[in-house]
């Protein structure tokens, strides 16, 4: 029996990678880091149908599933793509498919007319005095580390476990860009002061599933970024010479590259399985998502550190640009649950702690 990607999935990956090879070279990432208002890459993703991955064909999408969404996330991480994706193309469509599959908004998301920012960080540990409170259809509170910022709408989790949709131009809403280590993806903060909102769900299980989906996609992004760093390390070792021979011939360098590859390769099947579980194995999905993001965060950190060491002093320069992948992996590790947080959550799910 063969386990692997179907012909259609392979074609999707090839299509996205070919697009990103042209649209997101390292020079483009550098340009975006200096001017984060560049949105051309997102429009290109919309044009090839990525914004409608999880939207049904009847609503103008392609009607695919979370495995395909994870494959795209891996490609975006591999190219350290400076573009929104997680909120607009994956998490909000996933929530709407579960709560209101006939929503007009699904078609607008598929067409790229609406961009969604993810304001879910309060569900994984809000700072004191910042929790979002819902009252009479209005929200008050603060959410930091909003992903896919800026956006036209924000998916907000409140303190009671409900999910709300807030228009970026809603009264009482203010926002600002936050400075983080990852210059390839702007992160923001929104402040809500009695802002009108549309409640999508009062069921904490819907919020939990949204977090599961987001965590799997962040893990896939880390996988792609780590794979690129490994590939760069191997290529550099093959061409960099010391003592009249490539450093790839040195036993220590061989061990470093082999250990990175051995740790990273099983993560690919782990990502595929976790994405598959979101659609087909609901009883396993949450535990798998927690273990996946925790594990790949650790592997990604090891690969990013080791790949930089293989490059020696060059690994720290902007000329090589490894730091873009390094920092992307670092942000993915922290948002929506650190490894420690996720392992604690997994333990609670299994009844191992009170």
What do these coordinates show?
The chain has helices at 7-23, 26-34, 40-47, 66-78, 86-99, 104-110, 204-239, 251-280, 282-310, 322-334, 339-349; strands at 116-119, 133-135, 138-146, 153-157, 163-167, 173-178, 187-196, 198-201, 241-242, 245-246. The chain is α+β, with helices and mostly antiparallel strands. It has three domains: 7-114, Orthogonal Bundle (Butyryl-Coa Dehydrogenase, subunit A, domain 1); 117-202, Butyryl-CoA Dehydrogenase, subunit A, domain 2 (Beta Barrel); 205-349, Butyryl-CoA Dehydrogenase, subunit A, domain 3. The strands form three sheets. The chain has a four-stranded mixed sheet. The chain has a four-stranded antiparallel sheet with strand order 2-3-7-6, with no helix packed on it. It has a two-stranded antiparallel sheet with strand order 9-10. A hairpin with a 2-residue loop joins strand 9 and strand 10. The chain is globular, with a radius of gyration of 20 Å.
Strand order of the largest sheet: 1-4-5-8
Unreliable residue stretches: none
What global shape is seen?
Answer: globular
* Named CATH topology of the largest domain: Butyryl-CoA Dehydrogenase, subunit A, domain 3
**Biggest beta sheet summary:** 4 strands, mixed
Percent of residues in helices comes to: 40-55%
The CATH superfamily of the largest domain is Butyryl-CoA Dehydrogenase, subunit A, domain 3
Radius of gyration, whole Å: 20 Å
- Terminal CA distance: 41 Å
Q: Beta-strand percentage? A: 5-15%
Q: How many structural domains in the coordinates?
A: 3
Number of helices: 11
Gross CATH architecture of the largest domain: Up-down Bundle
Number of strands: 10
What is the string of SSEs from the N terminus onward?
Answer: HHHHHHEEEEEEEEHEEHHHH
Q: Under the CATH scheme, which class of the largest domain?
A: Mainly Alpha
């Amino acid at each position: 029996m063969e386990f692997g990607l179907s012909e259609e999935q392979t074609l999707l990956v090839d299509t996205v990678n070919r697009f990103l090879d042209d649209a997101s070279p390292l020079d483009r990432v550098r340009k975006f880091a200096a001017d984060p208002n560049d949105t051309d890459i997102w429009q290109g993703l919309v044009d090839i149908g990525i914004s409608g991955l999880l939207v049904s064909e009847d609503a103008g999408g392609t009607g695919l599933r979370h495995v395909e969404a994870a494959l795209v996330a891996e490609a975006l991480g591999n190219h350290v793509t400076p573009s929104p994706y997680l909120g607009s193309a994956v998490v909000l469509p996933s929530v709407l498919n579960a709560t209101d599959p006939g929503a007009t908004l699904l078609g607008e998301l598929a067409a790229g007319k609406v961009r969604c920012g993810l304001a879910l960080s309060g569900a994984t540990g809000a700072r004191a005095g910042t929790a979002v409170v819902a009252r009479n259809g209005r929200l008050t509170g603060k959410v930091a580390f909003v992903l896919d910022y800026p956006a036209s709408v924000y998916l907000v989790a409140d303190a009671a476990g409900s999910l709300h949709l807030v228009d970026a131009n809603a009264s009482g809403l203010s926002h600002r860009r936050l400075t983080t280590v990852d210059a390839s993806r702007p992160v923001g903060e929104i402040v809500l002061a009695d802002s009108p909102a549309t409640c999508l769900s009062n069921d904490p299980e819907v919020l939990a599933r949204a977090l599961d989906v987001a965590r799997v996609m962040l893990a896939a992004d880390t996988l792609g970024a780590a794979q690129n760093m490994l590939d760069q390390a191997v290529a550099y070792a093959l061409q960099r010479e010391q003592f009249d021979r490539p450093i790839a011939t040195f036993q220590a360098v061989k061990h470093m590259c082999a250990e990175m590859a051995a740790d990273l390769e099983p993560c690919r099947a782990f990502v595929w399985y976790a994405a598959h579980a979101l659609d087909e194995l609901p009883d396993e999905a949450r535990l798998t998502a927690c273990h996946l993001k925790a594990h790949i965060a650790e592997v990604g950190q090891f690969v990013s550190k080791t790949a930089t060491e293989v490059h020696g002093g060059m690994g720290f320069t902007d000329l090589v640009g490894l730091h873009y992948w390094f920092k992307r992996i670092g942000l993915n590790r922290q948002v929506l649950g650190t490894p420690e947080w996720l392992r604690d959550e997994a333990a609670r799910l299994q009844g191992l702690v009170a």
